[in-house]
Amino acid sequence: MTADHAALWQRDGRAGLAEVLAGEWDLIVIGGGISGAGVLLEAARRGLRALLVERRDFAWGTSSRSSKLVHGGLRYLKGGHLRLTAESVREREMLLRAAPGLVEPQGFAFAQYEGARGRRSFLTGLALYDAMAHRREPHWLAADDFLLAAPNVKRDGLAGGIVYTDARTDDARLVLRVLREALDHGAAAVNHLGARELLRAGGRVCGATLASADDGTTYTVRARVVVDATGAWSGALHGQGPRLRPLRGSHLILPAWRLPLARAVSLMHPHDGRPVFAYPWEGATLVGTTDLDHDDGMEREPRITRAEVDYLMAALQAQFPHLQLTDDDVVSTYAGVRPVIAGKEGGAPSQEGREHVAWSSPGLVAIAGGKLTTFRAIALDALRLVKHQLPGWDDPLDACPVFAPVPLPAVPVDVDVDAGTLRRLHGRYGACAAALIDAAGPGELERIPGTETAWAELRWAARSEAVRHLDDLLLRRTRLGLLLRDGGAAHLARIRAICQPELGWDDVHWAREETAYRAHWTLHHGLPHED
């Protein structure tokens, strides 16, 4: 893909942006997170001519800032949300089968201390959880056995512990894999191109005016139906839909050597009894999450507050006292805003449901709420409403595997790549994994120290994944900006050597991007000093 067309991600990169947008579309999807990507894929594989636009970058919003868990929602059972839990478990199992290397099983361990209540109800809930997944596994471990599973937890008063299995992912790479699959079915996706307003004719929506985030160039694009998949920003273009309650979830990332974990450790916060977890992710340890009303406005990028850092550190210090963890151990932070449907007034943030809703008006379909795990179910619900507005399109909308089966890439005999890296590349890049391996320079299939990322992933992203800015590359195409201290500053020289020629940036352009990235990282991913 040439630098001139870097914002346009489609199978035929030779066509210019204006040329591609000029056609008549069946569907325009507004929003490049996991919900929008899911709608694009399910529409394109069913023969619709579909375009996705995202005003910032693919997965820029909530879909790169989640807790990275593909889970059934065990806690939703406690609230009686059986349908949501069953749907989430089904989708989790589907993703585990479809995308090994991208979606992986994650064991959890929950320490139980003398005098604590709730063990019986927890185990009953897990039995139901297992039944939904058609599996059975033991969940109670005596203290000595539990310490083998989670050796660093507080030992005083330990009665034993509960263990169970969910799944984890790299949420941004999941979005990109879904988008890539949609492109294989003929869709197009454009980042840094926002919807300024909806077009209307005869009382119905008939397209959108789109504007480039880089130079303000506008495009008038026609479509039979527009889908609003903007998540926490839902309704801004049309003013319709349920009332949203933006909730902020913030996280810390620590080096694995300072908080070494084989399983995720769940605990109840010593101050308010909320669940908090720490688990191994991408070669580091991820800690989360808070659950607070986000009152900072939706046009400002969310960031962790000093109070949230203190809250999460208090949980770690209570559960792992002998590790003596401090702020100095924090590599990075991130915060995201969840698109939660508002419940009754005055309810606690953590008690809000995670169901999704979809609604329509002539020429428009919108979705809001939901969770990462259920993106396919959300997409199919949206398309059921689209179907009513597209006479002649009669797809049954049966659920099918998200990803087409792709064999492991054949590795040339002279290429040294270990089995773990091969599995990772296969899961993240699907049919593109072989081309990524072929493109790797000498030593680029080695992992970057402190991460599970291969240097070659940087080259492939710069060459083929619509990178417009350095934060696209380091915060979403790869996660190096979260996994390495100071956003990977110590590695920027090698990153530049690999990526600058692929991106076609001259020295002035690179210097400008690097300055902007460092400032952005300090503000949004470093430790805050004051709220």
From TrEMBL:
Residues 415-507 form the Alpha-glycerophosphate oxidase C-terminal domain. The keyword Transport does not apply. Its cofactor is FAD. The keyword Oxidoreductase applies. Belongs to the FAD-dependent glycerol-3-phosphate dehydrogenase family. PANTHER family: ANAEROBIC GLYCEROL-3-PHOSPHATE DEHYDROGENASE SUBUNIT A, GLYCEROL-3-PHOSPHATE DEHYDROGENASE. This is Glycerol-3-phosphate dehydrogenase/oxidase. The lineage of its organism: Bacteria, Pseudomonadati, Pseudomonadota, Betaproteobacteria, Burkholderiales.
